Amino acid sequence: MKKETTFKLAPGLLIGVIALIMVVVSCKKAQLVYTVSTNTNVTTFLDKNADKFSIFRQVLARSGTADFLQAYGTYTVFLPNNTAMTAYLKQIGKNSVDDISISDLTDLVKFHVLPDTVSTANFGDGKINTLTMYGQYLTTGALVTNGETKVRINKQGNILTSNIRVGNGIIHEIDGVLLPATKTLAQTIEADPKLAIFTQGLKVTGLYDSLNVIPALNPDAMHRWLTVIAQTDSAFKAAGYANFAALQARYAKPGSDPKTITDSLHIFFDYHILTTVKYLADIGSGANHTTLAPSEVIGAKLVDKQVLINDILFNGVYEPGVLLNRSRSDVSASNGALHYTAPYASSAGTTTGHIAPKVRVPVPVYWDVADFPEVRALGSVFRKTAVRKYFPKLSATTTPIDGWDWPKTEAASGEKYGMNYCTPGGKSPAGAAVPSANASFVYGDYMGIALGVATAANPGSATNAWMQMKTPVLIKGQYKVWICYERREQTGKWPTGRRTQCQVSIDGVIMAKPFDFAEPAPVGTTAELESQGWKYYTNDPLRATAAAPIPNVLIGKMIGIINIASTTTHTIRLDVIQGNSNTDILDMIHFIPVTAASQILPRFKPDGSMDYTPIP
């Protein structure tokens, strides 16, 4: 069996933050929002509402922070009411705030204050992006109790009254006292008996020490805040590792020091640590996350309010991921956040909750750009005869094809500058033919795109100045990149006629050669074409000759070599240098390792099958 397969675009990452209900909706009681004179600052507000907040006002007086919160500025205060403060004093065994040290009271105030105005409209299901004055993050979430939805802060207090405007900021009344994390990530992990194997691994690799430093004392600015995705002992055992010795036997190499960053066991645990602090919403809203393991990332997506990691379609094979345990995760530590993996039942079986970097070697990826979930869902359209399906972009923040983006929106332009999924002979709504009847497109379909910038002679001619797409998963390594397209003569003769020339980049790295949808292939044999960076990618090409040039030939151009640093998806982008057209036609993009036996074979038949028959 050949290793190369045509890569179907994986189901788009369902990227986005879980919606948090910010306005309390209840048939029992409506939320009350005060309107307060801007002449009233935080401390004065407490004085005027002593019946509800007198105990926290005593905290301000004893800690010497009353004047600070009375001064003009921009603050957000999560304000515990008297009921919350009374419960807190009972919890810690104190009769009054006079029994608490001034330093502890000062820290308590700092943990309830943000140096910015943050209303509930800026909350998300995760951390609030502004640090408290204590130096830790607060988290938010939605809690439903007896049919009533409330916004919960730090899993410790519910907002009773939100967005109280005062002269120097915003107050949110809460029914619980917020307490900062007192343990580091290392200490938090060690305190959980279900993480014994994981804890032992951190200690053996020296990573325990790295996770045991609070941000203020960490000289490594890049790693002051971290995120750990931990596996429980049961997850290890389900994966075949009964104890740490079994795990060490699998990953440790004889003679290698597990405390070095190149050691396999060290890399295994590095892979469970994300750079910066990320809560579930942060992870679920980002496709890929950098780990401490060199060049290794964790992929993530949100599916039915569940955060899945490393759930991908790779080389045509579905690899089910693991869940992040929603009920146990989002644990705050003094230097980051802790999450737990969990098994995941999928169509391909149930995973154990075990994650590890996979050793892969680069393989060719033959990407059919016209294969994506949104069009596959249209049974009457996908790979049917003579169809055209238009995908408009209706707003600047949403795109109709996951992983694709372009600047022109339908609402703003009023013109048809979205993306077209086409098969030869497809018609536009107005009846005009989509300009290709070529029967040799791979899988019989292609993407019709509109790219271009305005010219001095025709200032109203601009279409999309750029377009970008998310690639399939590429294994880290070096690749030659081939853009396979229908070369179009367009208006006028090459190179003086109308054309769309683009600068191509991958993850911001500019490729060596520009790409032009109107550029004809040179005339010559297969070997001569390859030496100049060209190839015919279909199995029965219409080949141009000097005597009989073919205006609309299917051809592939090698635009350069890219070093893919991490095994994940990547972004390829076309920025228009000159020219414009609304009929540029893109069929495939090939990523072929520089070490591959051939950059030319296989060629593809219209049904998508591969042909390894060489042609002169």
Defining key terms:
15 helices; 13-stranded mixed β-sheet; globular; eight-stranded mixed β-sheet; FAS1 domain; 616 residues; disordered N terminus
Would you kindly provide a written description of the structure presented here, covering whatever features stand out?
The structure is a single chain. This protein has 616 residues and is α+β, with helices and mostly antiparallel strands. It has 3 domains: 42-174, FAS1 domain (Roll), CATH 2.30.180; 185-351, Roll (FAS1 domain); 364-611, Galactose-binding domain-like (Jelly Rolls), CATH 2.60.120. It contains 15 helices and 33 strands. Strands 1, 20, 21, 22, 23, 24, 25, 26, 27, 28, 29, 30 and 31 form a 13-stranded mixed sheet that branches. Strands 8, 9, 10, 11, 12, 15, 16 and 17 form an 8-stranded mixed sheet that branches. A 6-stranded mixed sheet has the order 3-2-7-6-5-4. The longest helix is centred in the N-terminal third of the chain and has 14 residues, at 50-63.
Compute the number of helices: 15
Estimate percent helicity. 10-25%
Task: Describe the sheet with the most strands.
Answer: 13 strands, mixed
CATH class of the largest domain: Mainly Beta
Report the C-alpha radius of gyration, rounded: 30 Å
Strand content: 25-35%
What's the CATH topology label of the largest domain?
Answer: Jelly Rolls
Number of strands: 33
Low-confidence stretches: 1-37
Helix/strand-derived category reads alpha+beta
Shape summary: globular
CATH homologous superfamily placement of the largest domain: Galactose-binding domain-like
Number of domains: 3
Quote the distance from N terminus to C terminus: 25 Å
The CATH architecture of the largest domain can be given as Sandwich
Task: Look at the structure and give the mean pLDDT.
Answer: 86
